[in-house]
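Researcher: I'd like a candidate sequence for this fold, 181 residues long. If you have to choose between options at a position, lean toward the conservative one.
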């Protein structure tokens, strides 16, 4: 039997406690199902509340709201598109608050959810988190995925060190980088 998470484990994982739980990866990539309307409404309300708290500089409280919303999703959590965006905002909030281990956990779990693989923003944040944690090989891999899909535009709102890092790791094409890259 595959391990399952609990709401307490989710809270611990994304808020920085020592408990670490890995969400199970789905056996097959089935099309994501729709949440029941009442669950969707509550998840959306909690997510909006989390967004407001994060914008007010209350990252920890915002992450708590996101984790609470994540806990409302039926099992397996990884089947829901809502899990993708909730885990990404958890990772993003933790990244911006410099809680890199928690950001990494959430973003890695997001990669198990619908629509995450190949998403340039998720790869960007994974690369940045790995960079900050000193995992330079993984940082280069993830930042290259974002850069090769979106060019330098995806880096515009972040510290220029990430773009400089990935450009130092990639060999330019024979005719040089195209405009915007």
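Model: Candidate sequence:
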């Amino acid at each position: 039997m595959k391990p399952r998470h609990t709401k307490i484990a989710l809270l611990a994982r994304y808020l920085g406690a020592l408990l670490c739980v890995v969400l199970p990866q789905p056996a097959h990539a089935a099309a994501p199902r729709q949440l029941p309307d009442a669950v969707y409404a509550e998840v959306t309300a909690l997510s909006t509340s989390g967004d407001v708290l994060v914008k007010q500089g209350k990252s920890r409280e915002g992450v708590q709201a996101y984790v609470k919303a994540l806990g409302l999703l039926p099992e397996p959590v990884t089947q829901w598109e809502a899990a993708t965006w909730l885990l990404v905002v958890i990772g993003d909030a933790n990244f911006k608050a410099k809680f890199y281990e928690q950001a990494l956990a959430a973003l890695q779990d997001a990669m198990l959810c619908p629509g995450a693989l190949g998403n340039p923003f998720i790869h960007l944040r994974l690369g940045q988190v790995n960079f900050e944690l000193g995992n330079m090989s993984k940082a280069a891999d993830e930042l290259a995925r974002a850069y090769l899909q979106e060019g330098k535009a995806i880096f515009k709102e972040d510290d220029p060190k990430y773009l400089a890092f990935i450009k130092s790791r990639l060999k330019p094409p024979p005719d040089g980088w195209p405009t915007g890259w």
